[in-house]
Amino acid sequence: TRQCEGMEFQITRVLAAFRSCISEDGQILLKEYLSGWKEFIKFMDSLGMVFGFISQETTTKINIMNVYLAGSSGAEYHTLQSMIKHELDHGLVNFKELPRDQVPSGCRTLLRLHRALKWLEMFLYKLSISTSQDNTGKLCALAYEETLAHHHSWFVRQAAALAFLAMPPRRELLQILCVHKEEEAQFVLSTTAKSIIRVYDLTQRVYEAHGMLELP
Ligand code: 1PW
């Protein structure tokens, strides 16, 4: 069996990151948000080559955010709310489609991760209520079709469908997730899904309040 310590993926680290994502005054902390995603990317990478493009695309989005966080205005990117204020105040949001050679705004980039987070949450939830008879690829596909697929082109949806076919069986998947007992799996998965919902719902409200749910 797989060793579950050290640098390899652990679902409990995803949980810890998203749990610490909301500050006491209701701000979304971007570093924690991105670290939750970074941990999850390790999981996608351990699913093999076919998940490569999904994992790559997520990494690309995180890297764009990291450049902003490390940049001269980095302090403004401490939270979702401060980022929105900063980009609005300086006309950086890009409410219109950008030329391909321009770096997308933080608001636009995080919105892509935000939409993807719904997929992740739905997948973990479905996995948490699944039984040993369930097909993980099917669960993943269903979660995708109910959420992120609405935002994707035909081409991306086909590529995603291919990746789901290569999803490992449930038993193996739970091992990759570093949960070994059935009850433990249910608990960790549903707790993680719940911590993600809180972050997702708050982020959604903030984007909605600024009319930013459809940034191109
Ligand atoms: C195994 C459990 C699945 C949950 C993982 C969620 C990962 C989400 C990454 C999906 C990437 C699909 C391929 C890329 C599509 C891009 O076109 C799209 N990006 C995202 C993150 O949805 C839109 O970005 P774009 O093209 O407008 O810059």
Model description:
The protein is mainly α and 216 residues long. It has a single domain, classed as Glycolipid transfer protein, GLTP, CATH 1.10.3520. Helix content is 62%, strand content 0%. It contains nine helices and no strands. It has helices at residues 11-19, 30-45, 52-70, 80-89, 106-128, 136-146, 154-165, 170-176, 182-209. The termini are far apart. The mean pLDDT is 94. Bound molecules: ligand 1PW.
- End-to-end Cα distance: 44 Å
Q: What's the β-strand tally?
A: 0
By CATH, the superfamily comes out as: Glycolipid transfer protein
Poorly predicted regions are: none
Radius of gyration: 17 Å
The arrangement of helices and strands along the chain is: HHHHHHHHH
Task: Offer a concise description of the structure.
The chain has 9 helices and no strands.
List keywords for this structure.
216 residues; mainly alpha; Glycolipid transfer protein, GLTP; 9 helices; binds ligand 1PW
Write the layout of secondary structure elements.
Elements: H1 11-19, H2 30-45, H3 52-70, H4 80-89, H5 106-128, H6 136-146, H7 154-165, H8 170-176, H9 182-209
Helix pairs in contact: 1-2, 1-9, 2-3, 3-5, 5-6, 5-9, 6-7
Ligand 1PW binds next to helix 3 and helix 5.
